[in-house]
Design a protein that fits this description.
- It is built from 27 helices and ten strands.
- It is mainly alpha-helical.
- α22 links the parallel β4 and β5.
- The longest helix has 30 residues.
């Protein structure tokens, strides 16, 4: 985002204002309809380069002209230019969220409002990106503030470098070349960090300041270089067009599957640097002539506010229309309102604060910053209190009967479901609180993650598989207490119990899963469990599968091979058929339809649209493996409700609440007995 709103520098660099326009339009189109510009997110990278260039130009001029850099003055300018518009948008977004968003989304929104106000939104999103349980959290209306946070974190360090350089220049005549070497070294380190982390954990790497700092540093290094000379005209003319072409090409060629930032970010970043380095070329055929037109400069002038306003409007529009994407009319309305609000914010907020000197010194800047943060935090707190009121539901076994209500002519009715929609996503098995689920990075079981039950228990039971296996823990734990079992947990995130190489969420070979599963099989040789329970998500995909059908077959074959090895050293293997999948916003749907949650059910065909490879694996092993199918405890007469017996069935699109699973303990036990008899 354009974290450096246009100021006096726009009079000198009209093509930079035009480049701002290109950047914000890329982001705007991408967010309105990703299909039009699948890589439009590179507009943020263009903004990073522009901001690095402009801020460094100011710092370098101050250091060379005055022999020092005023750190206090730097932050006063930042507050004056950034905070008023950002605070207005955060306050407006928070207030509208209170009335528009489903209550299930208010907790996350409240936290993100505070994170955005304190410029740590990128760190919040980075943590959320690697949190498996939060991976499917719907986007908040302020998550785009992550880029503002990256820049402000960058500028905690950047002015200090110039202040130190100015001091050493005055005392020891340190040259600009020495400064450039330091900036270049930081650039290289950050770029290397970006490449490495993007290859390892792209989801969190996208938001980290360490993986993005090099993009701002490119603009900064360019500013130092151009302060000492311009490129020849014969170079500038083609360079400008090549740079613009690189930006557009990346916006068209990249998509959400492109590992980013990493190596891929180099194209739009270097393209932006090329456009800036070309400066104002002579003649109407230069790229700067196009970027310097009145319309392009006007869009550049409002780009900061346009960036701030467009995303919350898109989120609100999607919630109000109840659709996953915007239609043509929605796009036109959202785009038009975004531009109107951007213009109004610039005229009535940005310009008055900047031009009338309302923030003159450190004291006034601190007052403005504090007032903004406190007011945004207050709005977030109000939203959080609304969530707390909506989530106060107590479990009543006479009312919240769950699967016991299936087939009853008159099931008991309660005013509220349990857990409430607000708390459904946190209705997790105990094993998560006990940190018993192996992470993606784990490769060596090294013994069970956790063990439950007495050491002298008569039966040893192992649970292995992914989160769809772990979700059955509440029922198995209840059975263990009744049947004198000792439970050993070997579950791992997104890791189906197969020796087939599967793909992780980014589509890469999930080597850690394959290594883990072989390690678990070796553990079983020593443990010799009397019974092995497993289940897995039907969404698991093998690496490099040509088709979904071949993929399922490969998963099933891998299960058969691995289970056969396990069966040689253990008792029977019991596979539980995967649970039904629901629409992604099932919890939000129930929240909006507490009077009639039946509106949120899906057909059985939709809920079980994908075959379960465990069925084929069980058939291949004969008497050594058994399949337990509890789908009739989730779906009735061809429909799969979101609420059964006043109990929320789902905590997200693909996982069941621990409350509903626990209430299935008797059903699971009786079917297990029949399967083993």
């Amino acid at each position: 985002m354009p974290a450096t709103p246009p100021g006096s520098e726009r009079r000198f660099r009209p093509e930079v204002q035009g480049l701002r326009a290109v950047a914000v339009l890329l982001v705007l189109v991408y967010h309105l309809n990703p299909a039009l510009l699948p890589g439009g997110y590179v507009g943020v990278d263009v903004f990073f380069v522009i901001s690095g260039f402009l801020i460094t130009s100011l710092l370098y001029r101050e250091a060379t002209a005055h022999g020092h850099v005023s750190i206090g003055g730097f932050y006063v300018r930042r507050v004056r230019r950034l905070l008023p518009a950002a605070t207005v948008v955060l306050l407006g977004t928070g207030i509208v969220s209170f009335f528009v968003l489903p209550v299930t989304r208010l907790t996350d929104t409240a936290w993100q409002l505070a994170a955005s106000a304190f410029y740590v939104e990128n760190l919040y999103l980075a943590r959320q990106a690697v949190d498996y349980l939060a991976a499917d959290t719907p986007p908040s209306p302020v998550q785009h503030f992550w880029s503002l946070s990256v820049e402000e974190q960058f500028y905690l360090v950047w002015p200090l470098l110039f202040a130190v350089w100015a001091l050493t220049r005055r005392r020891w005549r340190t040259t600009a070349r020495a400064l450039a070497l330091v900036l270049g070294a930081l650039l290289v380190l950050s770029f290397a960090c970006s490449v490495v982390l993007t290859s390892q954990e792209a989801a969190s790497a996208y938001f980290l300041p360490t993986t993005r700092a090099w993009e701002l540093a490119v603009g900064g290094l360019l500013a130092v270089g151009l302060a000492h000379g311009r490129l020849p005209e014969r170079v500038r003319l083609p360079l400008g067009w090549l740079g613009l072409a690189a930006i557009v090409a990346s916006a068209l060629a990249y998509d959400d599957a492109t590992p980013f930032p990493g190596w891929a970010a180099a194209l739009p970043v270097l393209g932006s640097a090329a456009v800036i380095a070309a400066e104002q070329g002579s003649g109407r055929l230069s790229a700067s002539a196009l970027l310097g037109t009145a319309l392009a400069r006007w869009v550049g002038d409002v780009s900061y506010s346009l960036y701030l306003w467009h995303w919350p409007l898109i989120v609100f529009a999607l919630v109000l229309t109840g659709r996953d994407s915007l239609g043509p009319l929605d796009i036109a309305v959202v785009a038009g309102v975004s531009v109107l609000l951007a213009w109004a914010t610039k005229v009535w907020v940005e310009d008055p604060v900047r031009d009338r000197g309302l923030v003159q010194n450190g004291r006034s800047a601190l007052a403005v910053a504090t007032a903004g943060m406190v007011s945004v935090a207050a709005v977030g707190g109000a939203a959080y209190m609304q969530v707390d009121r909506s989530g106060s539901v107590t479990f009543d076994p006479t009312v919240h009967t769950g699967p016991a209500a299936i087939g009853q002519s008159a099931a008991p009715e309660g005013r509220w479901t349990y857990p409430s929609p607000v708390n459904a996503e946190d209705d997790l098995p105990l094993l998560y609180d006990d940190d018993c689920q192996a992470s993606k990075e784990d490769t060596d079981p090294g013994g069970a993650q956790c063990v439950y039950g007495p050491e002298d228990a008569g039966t040893t039971v192992a649970i292995v598989g992914d989160s769809h296996s772990a979700q059955w823990f509440p029922a198995l734990h209840a059975m263990a207490e009744e049947r004198d079992w000792r439970l050993f947990l070997y579950t791992k995130s997104s890791c189906a119990f197969t020796d087939t190489m599967t793909a992780d969420a980014e589509g890469r070979d999930y080597e850690e899963c394959q290594a883990w599963n072989r390690g678990v099989a070796e553990e079983f040789a020593e443990l010799s469990p009397d019974l092995v329970f497993t289940s897995s998500s039907t969404t698991s995909k093998p690496a490099g599968a040509d088709s979904a059908e071949k993929g399922k077959a490969a998963i099933a074959e891998g299960m058969g091979r691995l289970w056969e090895d396990v069966a040689e050293v253990s008792g029977p293997i019991v596979a539980i058929r995967d649970t039904p999948r629901h629409q992604r916003d099932v919890v939000e749907c129930v929240s909006a339809n507490t009077d009639d949650p039946g509106r949120c059910e899906v057909t059985e065909g939709e809920a079980f649209s994908t075959s379960d490879p465990q069925e084929e694996a069980v058939r291949s092993l004969g008497d050594e493996a058994h399949l337990i199918d509890l789908s009739d405890r989730f779906c009735v007469d061809g429909a799969c409700p979101a609420v059964i017996g006043n109990v929320m069935v789902y905590r997200d699109a693909g996982h069941i609440t621990q409350t509903y699973i626990r209430l299935l303990a008797d059903d699971l036990g009786s079917r297990l007995d029949r399967a083993l008899s």
